[in-house]
Design goal:
Elements: H1 3-11, H2 27-34, H3 41-47, H4 52-65, H5 89-101, H6 103-114, H7 117-126, H8 136-141, H9 161-166, H10 181-199, H11 202-211, H12 213-222, H13 228-232, H14 239-242, H15 244-256, E1 275-280, H16 286-292, H17 297-303, E2 319-324, H18 328-335, E3 344-350, H19 357-364, H20 368-374, E4 389-395
Antiparallel strand pairs: 1-2, 3-4
């Protein structure tokens, strides 16, 4: 990265002392003022000065703004290309790593991303983003739409619950739209556009996708760096973040020309699921809905991966259920004759002294996956804190279990 890019990125978080009135501005207003796009960078830079206190205020403003359901739309309609630095030492090193040392892993990533590439590329194009963005899911999750990290990030784009909600995804005990490749991709495109608007270059924007914008803002406020290599080598950043951008470039280089590295080419004629949408109010099992329109229940589940319990949400506004093309009218006609069928309820368990996860699972005869589904904001990989409230699914029939392997399945 050239020094002016870093200076411009820093410039977006600067406020001159002579602009004293800005010291009185609330963090939320700061977010609106400072969240400009690259097209206004020169204007912003002339009126801003770089200081740690301001960067920290900006970070707090981002945190406050994360509760908004509809983030501000970036001003840019087309974004510059990602610099593919194929011949730099770090990128070449990671290319060798993925093409040879981790060849099976890379082969699996390419196979997983193949079926989603048409959707990913279309989303990038519609948002004016570089096509290489489609390959980011390989580094994030191996392109697995059900990947879950130890930190409780979920889905192919590895959204945390709060970030997912701030970009319009529903995350609760009934529905987790981080599991929906199409909806989560649309949210990821908005997030990436916002990150580019904050940092003004792809090197920093993609690094922030990994570390979080607040963390990268903090490092920018602490480091007196003029080049990207200096920022990316900072010990204040985790190694994963320092390596994130060159690893992404390495994967993108391989994915753009897989035969060069001995991998099979992508099938450019991957079938795209075509569906219609039916808004449904009330609780109906997907199994019953599938029988009503005479399709396999597995097919309806595949079209609606965000529905966690195999049943439409009993609360909130009507939920849009996807059905195969040609089945919408039949379901709408028959839906009024179907009774609500809540298959399960849930209770609240308050973690007491001496409680452990294994003891709670045994007491309520549920497994970790079932508990994680209804508690998307709680990291079950960590020790439960005393006083923590857990939602526990309770089944009417103790013999009724959710069969869950690689893919979420219906309650039977």
């Amino acid at each position: 990265m050239i020094p002016t890019e870093i200076a411009e990125a820093k410039g977006k978080f600067r406020i001159r002392r002579r602009s004293a009135w800005l010291d009185l501005v609330t963090p939320t207003l700061c977010l609106v003022i400072l969240g400009g796009c690259a097209s206004t960078a020169t204007v912003i830079k002339e009126n801003l000065d770089y200081r740690p206190s301001v960067a920290n205020a900006f970070s707090r403003a981002i945190s406050l703004g994360s509760t908004n359901k509809k983030p501000a739309t970036p001003q840019l309609t087309a974004y510059p290309p990602i610099p593919i630095e194929e011949n730099t030492p770090r990128v070449r090193s990671f290319i060798r790593n993925y093409a040879y040392d981790r060849r099976e892993t890379m082969k699996n990533y390419l196979a997983m991303v193949e079926k989603y590439l048409p959707m990913l590329r279309t989303a990038a194009k519609e948002n004016g983003l570089p096509q290489e963005i489609a390959y980011l899911v390989m580094l994030e999750s191996g392109a697995d739409p059900e990947a879950r990290s130890p930190a409780n990030a979920l889905g192919m784009w590895q959204f945390m619950p709060a970030t997912a909600r701030s970009y319009g995804l529903r995350v609760d005990s009934w529905v987790d739209e981080r599991l929906d490749p199409k909806k989560s991709t649309q949210a990821a495109m908005l997030y990436l556009k916002d990150l580019y608007g904050m940092f003004g270059c792809w090197r920093l924007a993609l690094s922030a996708y990994n570390s979080g914008e607040n963390k990268l803002n903090k490092v920018l406020s602490q480091e007196d760096a003029q080049e990207y290599d200096e920022i990316s080598s900072s010990r204040r950043l985790k190694r994963e973040t320092r390596e994130f951008f060159p690893r992404f470039l390495a994967m993108a280089v391989i994915a753009k020309n897989p035969t060069k590295y001995g991998f099979p080419t992508f099938n450019e004629k991957v079938a795209v699921d075509k569906h219609e949408v039916v808004p449904i109010q009330g609780s109906y099992s997907l199994e019953t809905l599938a029988k009503t329109i005479d399709i396999p229940s597995s097919r309806l589940l595949e079209l609606n991966p965000a529905i966690l319990r195999g049943i439409t949400p009993s609360d909130g506004p009507p939920y849009s259920v996807r059905v195969p093309v040609g089945k919408k009218d039949a379901l709408v006609r028959k839906l009024e004759f179907l009774p609500d069928e809540p298959l399960k309820t849930q209770i609240t368990h308050v973690v007491n002294k001496g409680d452990s996860l294994s003891r709670i699972l045994k007491r309520y005869q549920v497994n970790r996956t079932q508990l994680a589904e209804v508690n998307p904001d709680i990291n079950l990989h960590r020790k439960l804190r005393q006083g923590c409230r857990l939602l526990v699914p309770v089944y009417k029939d103790r013999n009724q279990k959710i069969q869950k392997g690689k893919r979420l399945s219906l309650a039977r």
